[in-house]
TrEMBL record:
Keywords, alphabetical: Hydrolase, Signal
Gene3D superfamilies registered for this protein in UniProt: alpha/beta hydrolase
Start and end residues of each Dienelactone hydrolase domain: 84-277
The keyword Ribosomal protein belongs to this UniProt entry's keyword annotation: no
Record InterPro entries: AB_hydrolase_fold, Dienelactn_hydro, FrsA_esterase
Cleaved signal peptide residues: 1-22
Lineage summary: Bacteria, Pseudomonadati, Pseudomonadota, Gammaproteobacteria, Pseudomonadales
Keyword Hydrolase tagged: yes
GO molecular function, one term: carboxylic ester hydrolase activity
Name of the featured protein: Dienelactone hydrolase
Pfam families referenced in this protein's UniProt entry, alphabetically: DLH
Amino acid sequence: MIRKTLPVLALAGLLLTANAQAQSASALPSITPLPEKVAATALAADTQGVVRFDSRTPFDLDVMLKHYDQAAPYSGLGHLFLPKGASAKHKVPAMVILPGSGGIKDGREMAYGKLLSEQGYAAIIIDYYSPRGVTEDAPYALKASTVSEFDVVADAYAALRMLNQHPAVDARRIGVMGFSRGGIATRLAMDERIKSALAADLPGFALHVDYYGPCFQEFGTSKTTGAPLLSLRGAADVTNDLEQCARREHQLRLGGSKVGSQIYADAGHSWENLEARHTNDLTYVNGCDVVYDEGGMPTIAGRTMIPASTPLDRASRFQLRITSGRYYVGCLHKGYIVGRDEPVKQESDRQLIGFLDQVFNGAKHY
């Protein structure tokens, strides 16, 4: 089934705010408890399919940067594709694939896992909802508020660590790509502070690909890992403020990364999805800048969103997030283009494979 989603991402909780503001704290929804951990998958050269790996769920940037060892541990989940011929003697490059806030979509993440494996790459699709106890039938706003973009980054780096241990994967040729919220997480993974906090002992991601990740968050990245970024966006996608995105990408260039940006003239959001192209009536954020300081604390127009006294646990952070709508007055809009755009998909696929071939294999053009 095709699931329609909002690109509000970290701010999905503001959809709950209209009701939540009128409720007592005791009446607000509670965060879904994390399931018990399970054993990480033992990796052999032919291991593929469903895999489990150790990860954490920091929820907010300040926890990730300064208190990651206190973030709740849990068991991550992914679906790993291996190309034919991958072995301990013939190690292959790999990609970590991060879904948008609606989760794994028809025609997108699994299809890209298959496409990449056919091109000679391993690929792992991250499921960041179900292993955190979030079910398919959970209301979208509650589901997307339960898992943050920072949790997605944590899973990306946990998957990087797992792939480093896979006998058939070349640890120095692992990249990450993401759609919408996953695109935000893909850019965020370029921050050297985060790499140092989560994977200081590992080679970092070799490349990043951001598919239409909204750009309303300014994470304060002053130094990147140095890995390149390919940014793919649609000019008709109002969830992506292209001037805002250009500023974010310029900041990443200043931080030490090469950034290539492709804007497709008539493309909307989620052009790979199987649903027909249409304009929906869903909510998106445009007109706000969420600015994070060096310690990872966010503000909007100088207004502090997380008081310094806030506990580090995810339940406390969740309560703040679901009542955050008051900060976004004037920044919420309705209706954006989504759905299949075959010409754009074909061209973006060509650019994706060319970019991977250039970075991983030394090809001169893409």
